[in-house]
Sequence to fold (247 residues):
Amino acid sequence: MKFVKPLLVAAVLLSGCAAQQQQPQEEQAVVVDTASYLPLQTYDEQGIKIPYISAENPYLLQKGTVSKGSVLLFIEARRALNAGDEKTAQQKLKVITDQDNTLAGPYVMLGDISMKHEDYKKASESYRKAISINGQNVNAYLGLGEALRRQGEFTAAQNTYEEALRVWRDFPEAHLNLGVLYDLYLNMPAKAQAHYEAYLFLTHNKTHKANQWYEEVKSRTGITKSFVDPGPPQIKEAKPAKTASAE
Fold:
């Protein structure tokens, strides 16, 4: 396991000044096709699997300078939140946002706090603010999608997860949440099956529960063909060359 210094981790979670992303318009929302984001297992000419290399999370690849004071405040806010002291966490996060409006991380944490109190509207506002600051903050999309789902805005939630995959196509949790949304809320079991399978493929069958969901929806769709693994290509046997007649 690779360990990273707390200051560096906090800086990554805090940082990012990216172009603003257009927010989903709920009143005009339509279900966007997400099939193009499914990972695909490939094979070589001998029919041997080529190891799939997942795309890296672009949010973690971002580089930027964050003040040491903001980093320390963010660490303290996270520790306070983990200790159940939400008031202190919110106070420290407010200090950060008042001092620097180019950091997305504090708004994601504020959104998470609102989610705990089931204030989904306020949570949505915090996550949207984070996305407007840093359009590559995939955690903000994930939080916003859940907040929208809990408000009954299922299509807008689907659009949000699609945006997350547009940023990071191999985002396992976005695939999983899409699967749940398609399965339980949008009545699109085939799409659900595809994204459950994508999640299991990207995490190497990490979650037993997700495996159960995948098998259950598969029993309903009757689709046995894999969405992500087409299988090795059919290799045609070479026919023996004709020899000249000895007659």
User: Anything to note?
Assistant: Residues 1-12, 17-27 have pLDDT under 50 and may be disordered.
